[in-house]
Amino acid sequence: MMLRYFLKRILWLIPTLWIISVVVFFLAKATKGDAISPPRFEENMSLKQEAEYYKSERIRMRLDLPLFYFNIHRASQTDTVYRIPERHREALLSLAYHCNNWPKVDRFYAALKKAAFQKKISKAAFNNLISSYHQSSLKANKSKWTKEIDSVPVLKKRIIELQSKHLSLDNYLLNFKFYGFDNQYQQWLIRVLNGNGAYSSLQQKEQGKQLLRALQWTLGMSLLSLFLAFGLALLLGLLAFKPAFKQFKPYLERIFLSLYATPNFLMATILIFFFASGHVLKWLPLYGIGDASETDGTFSLIQLRAPYLILPLICYTYAALAYFFEQVKGNLANQLKSDYLLTAQAKGLSYFASLSKHALPNAIISLISLLGSSIPALISGSFIIETIFNLPGMGKLSVEAFLNRDYDLIFTITLIGAALTLLGNLISDFAYHAADPRISIYQKEKAK
Fold first, then answer.
1. Which of 46, 316, 399, 448 shows the smallest number of beta carbons within 10 Å?
2. 148 and 198 in contact (C-beta within 8 Å)?
3. Residues 6 or more apart in contact with residue 325 via CB below 8 angstroms
4. Domain that holds residue 379
């Protein structure tokens, strides 16, 4: 039964991740800006050269493909909107909506491009006219460039067509178009699964290496801090109930409450000031991971990098430790009231032995479910910690991607974070059952 449940959970991961990937992809497409970098010396290029550059880049990046497997659009719009460059698309679609007639807008766009390529109108006139979002703005731009427009009769005719009223219900009718499997989403998903979110082959190689290295650092630090916090919380939770240490229990609670309330950037600043800056002590390096050579062995690398990772590891661990300690303490306090514990002590087992052998295993069970949910919190915390201590992890890479407006990388990292969260929850379910085989998650699910 449990095997069936876990197989079902694993199978459900696939459509869940697919839905998340679709949401992430469309969020990436909804961001402002063009994926194509402007050409060098753009101001010296003619409109025809500029259009040819953007066309060749769109083909290379596969942006000339449909956005998704299908499209639902207004009848007043075209089903080949993906062929229009992004910098012109929004204005043309807005104009089509207000004119209620896409063929008219298409004829205007074709006439405008032809006039610009033949240098019958200036680049400034082209940019003004192509950015007309409404008939009123088109009329204003026409008045501004009357002399140039009058020299191109076909263009003038198309603008007059757009200014005429067209009564239609096309804005309120929807059309469905199926494009097939050769589309931008599928190409993007293949790149992401290969570890590359960028377009050019050079960027792909760089981004693949960056992501792999960053993932190794963040996962390594996160998992190490998670197990360290979990182990220390169990040890301190047990000691807090030992008769010899009971007098220190209130102080421990206050210390951990203060730690839990302290933001990680403040803790990092305090630790750097006292232990790395030299103002008080200079025991540890300020930031970085040390300069390692390719010939260094594993032991040499650990010896080199350990001093650099002590302060970041404390910043990763202290909040989780405080939270886990409170959970262990609360669970052990509940177990102390149980009859089985009193029976164990009546049979001659010491108080601390009964606590560690009987109460602790039962107290751990509820903590296991917290492990999976702790992974996203640790990864989100890495944004600040890795930036402060200059660690080459996912957090620092994300901050750099935000600053550089590298949307492909940002949304690829988002997708990886979502996948890690789902995987963490699945692992916590496995561990939950392994800790106590009596718990049948499948039966509970079936009862619901």
1. 448
2. no
3. 232, 233, 236, 237, 252, 256
4. 201-404
